[in-house]
Structure prediction request, 360 residues.
Amino acid sequence: MYLLNALNNYKKDKKSALKCSEYEVLCRVHLTGILDLGAIYLQFWELPPDLEKNRYDVRAVYLKTFTSQEDIAKELSAKNKQYYVPGGLPNEIAILMTLFTRAHFVLSRVFRSYNTLLMMKFADELDVGYGDLDGKTLKLENIEPYFHMLEKLNLMENTDKKNSGRLGPFMLAARFYHLAFSLIHKDATVSYIFLVSAIESLLHDYDIDNAVLEDWNAKAAKLIKKEVKDDNKYKEIEQIIMSKSVRIKKRFISFIKSHLTEKFWSDPTRPKKKWLCFKDHADVEEYLSRIYDARSSALHEGNLFPPSFGKMNEERPIALGVRVGLKEWKEKELIPPVRAFERIIHHVLLEYLRRKSKII
Prediction:
């Protein structure tokens, strides 16, 4: 990661020739305090004239980075490291800030690049997505620990072969989450797809026990049992069929359920009325299954995604059915509003980082 390279080189020798770059990042939350990691400095820059009246307005954040020639060389050779993020270090920080805060951060402008004055615009206010925390005040001191978790995860990458290979997939998941956040109010269908992909990025070293063919395809299991009388041979065939790729849906659901802790169930942004909330893990499992099926049907068969509604911050779809043109979805086919699904994925990604960095 560009961020970790910069932090490591900064710690090695603060007196070395560091290159300063300055950027503007946009968001819809109010930040207090300072995020100072040495190589990275981030601070709230602009306050709307009337904070209460304009609480959902876009606000500007000042970002300054200090990188060495070694960092620049690593960025140029990122291809050899099998790691690349469009926009480099500043965009990587915007992606991580989005994940760590659950508010959309967008790299807007560059003022100085490697000690050279350079005015260049990348995005404007219309590119900043909306979220549950818009207009809220967040303390940067509460965000800093997540960056240290990344450092510890990186340390494990280099010292523990058993737990290696997780940093790259985690950053890919963060990128999918950032993209999904930007599209929630523009194209919910694509947002669902990115959110599912964020979890799938982390399933490479996750598996489930007792995968049974009968649970996956009862008809296939019945036909095989009819032809294969030997139990050992049936088990062998079952094991071949139930490969990781076939079990992907069950792994997807199991992974999410295993990372839903009390922090999720007590999240203050969840609906206040109980009848709008997920009832329990079994209820969540049912809707995760529907979302995964809808995603697969849309991607692999070109079918329409069920419409996403969320007028009352509900988690469970409250309609008895939906019709769009000639297409009709029954109640049992409806899926949670995309914002409710985003809340789940956000919690799961942060819980994954806590566990894998061994900071609980």
User: Anything to note?
Assistant: The longest strand covers residues 18-27.
